[in-house]
Amino acid sequence: VQLQASGGGLVQAGGSLRLSCAASGRTFSRSAMGWFRQAPGKEREFVAAIDWSGTSTSYADSVKGRFTISRDNAKSTLYLQMNSLKAEDTAVYYCAARRFGSYYRTENEYEYWGQGTQVTVSS
């Protein structure tokens, strides 16, 4: 699976962005997917994950209620809708895929990674 993240940019606090992650390969519809982020000087952290069917999701406490992860298996695309953005959401956001259908919140469970897209929230 090859992953291409897009949709990042500069937004004011309180604004919204939608990230997309386009996947190539025939296994996307069977793969659990996740979003992770890495802020300057910090370790990469879990943001959200979704199972292969899209019916089960998980969120980090810091984004719960503000971010929504979703997927369109027909389009082989993963999304992250980010609302009520805060300055602390500023980071490079990465999408990731597993070979299996159930998700995990730890990055070492994901075998495939996109190149990252920068999100900057100005306060």
Question: What does this entry look like structurally?
Answer:
It contains no helices and eleven strands. The protein has 123 residues and is mainly β. Strands 2, 4, 5, 6, 9, 10 and 11 form a seven-stranded mixed sheet that branches. Strands 1-3-8-7 form a four-stranded antiparallel sheet, with no helix packed on it.
Mean pLDDT: 96
Helical amount among residues, as a percent range?
Answer: under 10%
* Quaternary assembly: single chain
What's the story with the biggest beta sheet? 7 strands, mixed
The arrangement of helices and strands along the chain is EEEEEEEEEEE
Contiguous low-pLDDT stretches (5 residues minimum) are none
Rg over CA atoms: 13 Å
Q: Give the total of beta strands.
A: 11
Q: Main traits of this protein?
A:
123 residues, mainly beta, seven-stranded mixed β-sheet, four-stranded antiparallel β-sheet
